Amino acid sequence: MAKPTAPGKAEAAAQTRDRLVSRARSLFARRGYADVGLTEIVAHAGVTKGALYHHFDSKADLFRAVIAQVHDEVGERVAAAAEASEDPWEQLLHGCDAFLRASVDPVTQRILLIDGPAVLGWREWKALDASASERHLTEMIEELIEEEVLPTQPVKPLVHLLSGAMNEAALWLAHASGPDDIAATMRALTAMLDGLRRPGAK
């Protein structure tokens, strides 16, 4: 039987990077960014500090890779929930609900909503959010206006208002959420969105 081919340098480097991100993510999620050191991360990943610094400039740089991974996963959950319906209005509601539910996941809470703004700073954290979630929300709002579900209006201000409301709700849920809070938050958000609809819109 032929021996399995050893991974090439590029593949081995990618595997090392993925392992560092995975181990760091696990530690950050359990204990928080501030309580985890690089020595512990490389020990859990089974690599040297030199290998870590080959891929990341610092602990904060490694955290950026972790938070980007979590952010992408939340975006995938939101997109999947929205795509479960063909109705644009239902897509918006399902997407918002998925986002709020993701915000109470312990990993999302710790990495994306609690440590994220503190480590990256608000400006960089907001830019990360805008790169994906605000783009998807813009597309939804544009479609709802085109379908005459929402009145014709400037899209960008509305997107920022809705994004701000959902981010604030997610941050609140991350810090002080009880078992009924997410349902109550979604009811309040749905009522707010209903108020934006064109009268008589289906």
UniProtKB/TrEMBL annotation:
Keyword Transit peptide included in the entry's annotation? no
The UniProt keywords, alphabetically, are: DNA-binding, Transcription, Transcription regulation
List, for all copies, the residue spans of the domain called HTH tetR-type.
Answer: 14-74
* A GO molecular-function descriptor: transcription cis-regulatory region binding
Give a Pfam family name: TetR_N
The UniProt entry, under InterPro entries, shows:
Homeodomain-like_sf, HTH-type_TetR-like_transc_reg, HTH_TetR, Rv0078-like_C
What is the designated name of this protein?
Answer: Transcriptional regulator, TetR family
Q: Which organism is it from?
A: Stackebrandtia nassauensis (strain DSM 44728 / CIP 108903 / NRRL B-16338 / NBRC 102104 / LLR-40K-21)
Q: What is the lineage of its organism?
A: Bacteria, Bacillati, Actinomycetota, Actinomycetes, Glycomycetales
